[in-house]
Design a protein that fits this description.
The structure is a single chain. It contains six helices and ten strands; from the N terminus they run H-E-E-H-E-E-H-E-E-H-E-E-H-E-E-H. With 188 residues, the chain is of the alpha+beta class. Among the domains are: 44 residues; 40 residues, Double Stranded RNA Binding Domain, CATH 3.30.160. It holds the Pfam family zf-C2H2. It comes from Daphnia pulex (Water flea). GO terms for molecular function: DNA-binding transcription factor activity, RNA polymerase II-specific; RNA polymerase II cis-regulatory region sequence-specific DNA binding; zinc ion binding. It is found in: Nucleus.
Length: 188
């Protein structure tokens, strides 16, 4: 744990500390509230002028910028197994793991490339939902789903239904609304 965040864990359970870290990550992923674009990599994070994504550190921004490189610009690396091309070695390294499905579910035999993916999958069999929203107490089996859910509590709802004009914090929630609201909306 970074020394700058040690105050997060003072007197808290592991679950509370993990939730605090998740909230911090969510805060870092949101655009700054002020007019600053955070491009200097300071406390406001680092901002990509190409796609508008913001990152907590300039090194994370630099890593992300590699994904915008053109595959034909040179330096791209093909996967030796399937031939899919990647513009950065870290991305290729992560992809290579998908070809080695060594973590097998003892219940249904589904295989995963990483142990944490298997661990999350096991919750589909047990029904366990250890990640709870501290605002509405909705529970989730996966931490990333909780992080996405936390955006629904944000006042920023950038995705608008073209039919009923209801707004959503996440694009996936807009799509779900459009798919389940056949009487209201037609997916465009």
């Amino acid at each position: 744990m970074a020394s700058g965040t040690s105050w997060l864990s003072a007197g808290r359970t592991a679950e509370e500390t993990e939730a605090a870290h998740d909230l911090l990550q969510l805060a870092y992923s949101l655009p700054p509230l002020s007019g600053s674009d955070g491009a200097d990599g300071g406390s406001g994070g680092a901002h990509n002028d190409h796609c508008g994504k913001a990152y907590a550190t300039s090194s994370n921004l630099s890593r992300h910028k590699q994904t915008h490189r053109n595959l034909e610009s040179g330096g791209s690396k093909p996967c030796p197994t399937c031939g899919k091309t990647y513009v950065s070695m870290p991305a290729l390294s992560m992809h290579l793991l998908t070809h080695a499905l060594t973590h097998v579910c003892p219940v249904c035999s589904k295989a995963f490339s990483r142990p944490w993916l298997l661990q999350g999958h096991m919750r589909s069999h047990t029904g366990e939902k250890p990640y709870e929203c501290h605002l509405c107490y909705k529970a989730f089996a996966d931490r990333s789903n909780l992080r996405a859910h936390m955006q629904t509590h944000s006042s920023v709802k950038s995705f608008r239904c073209g039919q009923c004009h209801k707004t959503f914090a996440l694009k996936s929630y807009l799509h779900k609304h459009q798919e389940t609201s056949a009487n209201c909306c037609v997916k465009t």
